[in-house]
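User: quick one, sequence for these tokens?
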């Protein structure tokens, strides 16, 4: 029984679909891809890719050194690990704080803040 399950799993793993079946499925409306990214998201992704490439270039230059400075070597790895730990810690604190602030769905709590008259100072 175990051997039949393994052979069945192996058949599922290496099964193929003909090109005609793939093209026929692609023409069906429920298999059509829908646009999910607008111009703002695409611009943000492009900026993120450029910044990411710049970070990799700076790290490479810091590790290897250049014409006017020595490379950092293993200290760079330690610096990146410290940065990662601090970043994760800050994100954890920020997300935990944002979870502590709850607002009602209809905004009643905000209406109470904006519509209450200030209390009179004691005489």
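Assistant:
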């Amino acid at each position: 029984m175990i051997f039949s399950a393994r052979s069945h799993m192996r058949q599922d793993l290496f099964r193929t679909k003909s090109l005609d079946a793939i093209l026929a499925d692609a023409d069906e409306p429920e298999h059509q891809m829908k646009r999910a990214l607008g111009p703002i998201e695409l611009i943000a992704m492009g900026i993120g890719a450029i910044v990411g490439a710049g970070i990799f270039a700076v790290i490479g230059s810091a590790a290897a050194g250049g014409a006017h400075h020595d490379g950092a070597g293993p200290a760079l790895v330690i610096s990146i690990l410290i940065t990662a730990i601090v970043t994760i810690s800050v994100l954890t604190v920020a997300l935990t704080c944002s979870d502590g602030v709850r607002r009602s769905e209809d905004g009643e709590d905000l209406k109470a803040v904006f519509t209450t008259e200030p209390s009179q100072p004691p005489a």
